[in-house]
Write a structure and sequence with these properties.
The chain is an alpha/beta fold. 41% of the residues lie in helices and 17% in strands. The protein binds pyridoxal-5'-phosphate.
């Protein structure tokens, strides 16, 4: 019956359209209803089947509608569905926290579970401030983030973000304490002949200058995504960059926050993105793939520098959401993580990621309007440009990435994520491909072919 209702809605909205046509609409026209998803496919109704190449915003990392995950959630709901973090610590919260700590080999020592990436970032900003209050350095009120970054939609996390388009309506945002340095975007910023080391050094010098300009002892924390997500479209920091940034933070006594909400939890081929080069942050945020979309789950992970002070001074973080440390969220996230572990899916991210990289380069590498193909693991971005040689972007009014998204969905039945350049000037107009970690290689190849046809058509 829901199928009938759904079909009627589509018919009444636009009688000549198929469900798939309607799927490429946006908020202004009214999103179509979704009935079902299973594995790597969305089923919007009327027999339409859309290959899921992005898991929403890089969330559905083990595919949709798994019974084993549903069972874990239900059995926790049956045991107890809610308890306040202020009264008890739910057993699954303890278990998933222990699991996370162990996954960092003890580098992270404390976990606060939340529901969204924005909340986790918000908590990281607050804990940074409180840490310095405990340390008797209350003047450390400044934060340094990066241009071309995204950290969330709440006012603090948005202030830390360099996403000009998303910040736009809210300017002046929480301005005075949030400062920016440039991102690490080799496609657009690397000088000819500049190697990774020289590029990283140049960026570290820029960070040092920012510390000097603000007064080194006024900075609480520096926040960055080790691999930039939706603001730029899957741009990994170059080798050595994260270490160079950490050295500067340590020199001036500021905390380093890695926002791994999008690039973490296996997405880029290591469970934690920082494990690739073993550059350990002081605070780390995770989200999205943590519970694979089966529950709204995120977390703030806290490293030794902060936890040791907390222990020594007997301090507790002044923080708390009603749904913090939610037992069903915890039980579900733990199940998703166990599946990733037991099915050896991170190794699959590496292997499938290499396949995806090769095939994208093969099919689209020479396309005159594909400026850059970049990423890591199963996290790939394709940036569109008007002129490949000069890297001149398209006029943002053309919304090229959005067009590719629409055509991919409507004509080639594959869902990709798209983002208009976050600077608002067309640079960074991209689509993102973020398949489930267990997507078979044949489907990975299928994704690449369908996306290529959509790009060619647009
Ligand atoms: N941080 C990063 C790197 C993100 O990509 C996002 C969301 O896309 C967020 C934070 C915010 O997470 P949420 O949308 O779950 O609040």
């Amino acid at each position: 019956s829901s199928s009938k209702i759904h079909s009627r809605k589509i018919e009444s909205d636009a009688s000549s359209e198929t469900v798939v046509d309607s799927l490429s609409k946006g908020p202004a026209e009214g999103f179509p209803l979704l009935e079902k998803a299973k594995g790597y496919y969305w089923y919007p109704g009327d027999g339409a089947r859309i290959l899921d190449a992005c898991g929403g915003a890089g969330v559905a990392c083990i595919g949709h509608a798994r019974r084993d995950v549903a069972q874990a959630a239900v059995s926790q709901m049956k045991a107890f569905s809610y308890v306040s973090y202020a009264h008890f610590k739910a057993m699954p919260v303890q278990e998933v926290s222990d699991w996370l700590i162990q996954s960092t080999e003890g580098e992270m020592q404390k976990v606060y579970l939340m529901c969204s990436g924005s909340e986790a970032v918000e908590a990281a900003l607050k804990l940074s401030r409180e840490y310095f209050i405990w340390k008797d350095e209350p003047q450390r009120v400044n934060f340094i983030g990066r241009e071309e970054s995204y950290h969330g939609t709440t006012i603090g996390s948005l202030s830390a973000s360099g996403h000009v388009v998303r910040r736009g309506p809210f300017e002046p945002i929480l301005g005075p304490q949030f400062h920016k340095i440039s991102s690490c975007n080799p496609y657009r910023q690397r000088h000819p002949e500049e190697g990774d080391e020289a590029f990283s050094t140049r960026k570290a010098v820029e960070l040092e200058e920012k510390f000097q300009q603000l007064g080194p002892d006024t900075v609480a924390a520096v926040i960055m995504e080790p691999v930039v997500g939706a603001a730029l479209g899957c741009v990994p920091a170059v080798q050595g960059y994260l270490r160079a940034m950490k050295i500067v933070c340590e020199k001036y006594g500021a905390l380093l926050i890695f926002d791994e909400v999008m690039c973490g939890m296996g997405r880029t081929g290591s469970l934690h993105a920082w494990q690739r080069e073993m550059v350990v942050p002081d605070l780390q945020t995770i989200g999205k793939g943590f519970a694979g979309g089966y529950m709204p789950a995120s977390a703030l992970l806290v490293g030794a520098k902060v936890t040791e002070l907390m222990k020594r001074e007997d301090k507790a973080f002044t923080h708390g959401h009603t749904y913090q440390n939610h037992p069903v969220v915890a039980a579900t996230a733990l199940k998703v993580q166990k599946i990733i572990q037991e099915e050896n899916l991170i190794a699959n991210v590496e292997a499938a990621g290499r396949t995806l990289e090769q095939v994208l380069h093969k099919l689209l590498g020479n396309h005159p309007n594909v400026g850059d193909i970049r990423g890591r693991g199963l996290f790939w971005g394709i940036e569109f440009v008007r002129d490949k040689a000069t890297k001149e972007p398209f006029d943002p009014a053309l919304q090229m990435a959005h067009q590719v998204f629409r055509v991919a969905m409507r004509d080639f039945r594959v869902l990709v994520y798209h983002g208009q350049g976050c600077a608002g000037d067309g640079r960074g107009d991209h689509i993102m491909i973020m398949p489930a970690y267990n997507m078979p290689e044949t489907s990975i190849l299928d994704v690449a072919k369908r996306v290529t046809r959509a790009v060619e058509k647009v």
